[in-house]
Known about the structure:
Elements: H1 2-21, E1 31-35, E2 41-42, E3 48-53, E4 62-66, E5 78-79, E6 83-95, E7 98-113, E8 121-130, E9 136-145, H2 186-189, H3 214-240
Parallel strand pairs: 2-9
Antiparallel strand pairs: 1-3, 3-7, 4-8, 5-7, 6-7, 8-9
Helix pairs in contact: 1-3
Amino acid sequence: xxxxxxxxxxxxxxxxxxxxxxxxxxxxxxxxxxxxxxxxxxxxxxxxxxxxxxxxxxxxxxxxxxxxxxxxxxxxxxxxxxxxxxxxxxxxxxxxxxxxxxxxxxxxxxxxxxxxxxxxxxxxxxxxxxxxxxxxxxxxxxxxxxxxxxxxxxxxxxxxxxxxxxxxxxxxxxxxxxxxxxxxxxxxxxxxxxxxxxxxxxxxxxxxxxxxxxxxxxxxxxxxxxxxxxxxxxxxxxxxxxxxxxx
Length: 247
């Protein structure tokens, strides 16, 4: 029985180690904060909503404000002035086979106008963009509205736009567009991932050097592989050990 508990503890340690070593990178360019905040309650009509990301949203990013009954209420979004975040956001970058955290203290907003507020209930703000390293940035913010109900302004036409197909294409499938005017050369920036530059209004800064070679993956999975081998050896040796005779 004692040996069985030893095996259980070894397996538990193996699972915990794999969870730490093989931890996936946090999505880059993620949503940091929004106004109104997620799951908050709004008591009066707002002319625009503000979504702050850890980097400037792609120029063709998609935003939609949807009422409780499913009506689109958003207008053409625009970039706003960056601001310092009350709480820094941590994102992870793979550097030489190790996940290294980096704190982002500045929020880059997307300002989304709201045409009118037709009903009370739960509203949803949907967004789709691409981070500077090519990762898909996608999600939604829900909040409740219990303020005054209004009618659609004269000439209002609900938008029916969909996300730009280029946003949904993986970076490897996007042809390399070349260096934009005024952009720094890759030689001066160091190694970086191939990214769909055409999705951005300006060259995106390199937040951290990421290792894309096979050595990084080998190091990341080396420790779990060794632990798995150790567990197998322990189990085999246990099976071969003769059972204790009852005196």
